[in-house]
Write a structure and sequence with these properties.
The chain is about 60% helix and about 5% strand. By secondary structure, it is mainly α. The strands form three sheets. It has a two-stranded antiparallel ribbon with strand order 1-2. Helix 7 runs antiparallel to helix 10 (about 255-285) and helix 10 (about 255-285) runs antiparallel to helix 11 (about 310-330). The protein contains 19 helices and six strands. The chain starts with about 20 loop residues before the first helix and ends in a 14-residue tail after the last helix. The chain is elongated, with a radius of gyration of 31 Å. The chain folds into three domains: about 25-125, Orthogonal Bundle (Fumarase C, Chain B, domain 1), CATH 1.10.275.10; about 125-290 and about 305-375, Up-down Bundle (Fumarase C, Chain A, domain 2), CATH 1.20.200.10; about 385-450, Fumarase/aspartase (C-terminal domain) (Ribonucleotide Reductase Protein R1, domain 1, Orthogonal Bundle). It is an enzyme of class 4 (lyase).
Length: about 475
């Protein structure tokens, strides 16, 4: 396609995460971008070199704190110069990790530390560096960016649950009027569900391997057979606050990633359910949307406030779920000792988490832009007195057991009165007065209304303050 413009569009962001929605997801770019991955690779290379010299291996002596600080600046101040240097070198090497090794060697030379240059990437396969770098970046992205946003959504739900704990509303099972509940209790259900998954994500493993080309430490032993290399590797990985996988092929098996992405996808499913439920509550008038100054709901209908936050969240959660499922499905398998399908797949971790983060951002905003229409809830309750049929037939059953009633089939009796038809307060009261039950039961039923028939709904909100039961894996 040709245009009259002199400005090509090919250099514009292809993904909306890097364009329209960049501000909402930029925190993930610190870790899960190509630059973030390369910074972590430099970190692993530098820390491995320091770890080897700290042990005085191969005649080296431990570096002084000044030299260690100078080396750590390579990743602490990693920026545009390093990004450009790596891009230029990778164009020649056609290998991203080798380019990182050359960067570290180049900087060692500039620092006058050529004597230890051969310890850069020592006995490592690329996947030693990559598995560690991915564990670092994913861990930091989840703990520093994704989990806090999930926690913010949970906090918003908890606040709304507490605020509306006594707001009676008609439940809708199968979309039909059902035993009343409260809006607070229904929102607390989502908070409780998300709390469980958040705790599971927080307890996730982040594993790395550091055992050479096929996971056997063969090169290490060839260079120095008298060193307990598995211990050296484990202590190194654990010094980075990661878990160590001692039994691998060339790659770390990625099972921890599969577990993590499945948990995040599970959270996404709950959030999707939340988005569609709140959308429905808005649709039936239970929630009104608070107008945002200057915003346009429709290009032609000026009265509209569309529930775009929840629709946007719904769509992004579906995209995220699909990508996370692909990550889990692909990463669980590697042909024999190594293939490269994982390499391409893992480059999309940031995209999968990005769409999830964008959804969380929209949900957090959306939950702050709704107001409960209690008059609508009350009107709905007043129009559905037949929902008390459950209470009446259950009370009658108890009276039969107590010997205070001779009614033979209370369920059928109430079914005949209420199924498929509206029953008003007066008609229901007249029906109760004519029942063959004790006076105390009649009094309880006669004062009952749809708005007061909410059981323990309000008190159940307090469950959110109780400690979660231990996860089976704990």
């Amino acid at each position: 396609m040709t245009t009259s413009s002199d400005q090509p569009l090919g250099d514009q962001p292809l993904s909306p995460l890097d364009g329209r929605y960049r501000a909402a997801v930029s925190g993930l770019g610190e870790y899960l971008s190509e630059a973030g991955l390369n910074r972590a690779r430099v970190e692993v290379e530098v820390e491995w070199l320091i770890a080897l010299t700290d042990r005085s291996l191969f005649g080296t002596t431990p570096l002084g704190e000044t030299d260690k600080d100078r080396l750590r600046v390579l990743y602490l101040d990693f920026g545009p110069d390093e990004i450009a240097w790596l891009a230029e070198r990778e164009a020649v090497t056609r290998h991203d990790v080798k380019a990182v090794e050359y960067l570290v060697r180049d900087r060692l030379a500039q620092m006058g530390l050529d004597g230890i240059a051969e310890l850069t990437h020592f006995a490592c396969t690329s996947e030693d560096i990559n598995s560690t770098a991915y564990a670092l970046t994913v861990k930091r992205a989840v703990e520093d960016v994704w989990l806090p946003k999930l926690r913010a959504v949970i906090a918003a739900l908890r606040a709304l649950a507490e605020q509306h704990r006594d707001a009676a509303m008609l439940a809708r099972t199968h979309g039909q009027p059902a035993t009343p509940t409260t809006m607070g209790k229904e929102l607390a259900v989502f908070a409780w569900r998300l709390e469980r998954v958040a705790a599971q994500v927080e307890a996730s493993d982040f594993l790395a391997k550091f055992s050479g080309a096929t996971g056997t430490w063969s090169a290490h032993l060839a260079a120095e057979p008298d060193v307990a290399w598995p211990i050296v590797s484990q202590e190194f990985i654990e010094s980075l606050d990661l878990g160590f996988n001692p039994l691998t092929t060339q790659i770390e098996s990625h099972d921890w990633q599969v577990e993590l992405y499945d948990r995040i996808r599970h959270a996404g499913g709950i959030l999707h359910n939340l988005a569609t439920d709140v959308w429905t509550y808005i649709s039936i008038g239970y929630f009104t949307q608070i107008p945002v100054a200057g915003a346009t709901g429709s290009s032609t209908m000026p009265h509209k406030i569309n529930p775009i936050r929840f629709e946007n969240a719904e769509a992004n959660l579906e995209i995220s779920s699909g990508l996370l499922a692909t990550l889990s499905q692909t990463l669980v398998t590697s042909r024999l000792q190594r293939d490269l399908t994982d390499s391409t797949t893992q480059r999309n971790i940031g995209v999968a988490l990005g769409h999830s983060l964008l959804a969380l951002d929209n949900l957090q905003r959306g939950l702050g832009e709704i107001s409960l229409a209690e008059d609508v809830l009350q009107g709905d309750l007043d129009g559905n007195w037949e929902v008390l049929g459950e209470a009446i037939q259950t009370a009658v059953r108890a009276e039969i057991v107590e010997g205070r009633s001779q009614i033979s089939d209370p369920y059928a009796l109430l079914k005949e009165l209420t199924r498929g038809r509206r029953v008003g307060a007066a008609e229901l009261a007249e029906f109760v007065r004519g029942l063959d039950i004790g006076d105390a039961a009649k009094e309880r039923l006669l004062v009952l209304t749809p708005a007061t028939y909410t059981g323990l709904a309000s008190e159940l909100v307090d469950v959110l303050d109780e400690e979660l039961p231990a996860h089976p894996e704990d």
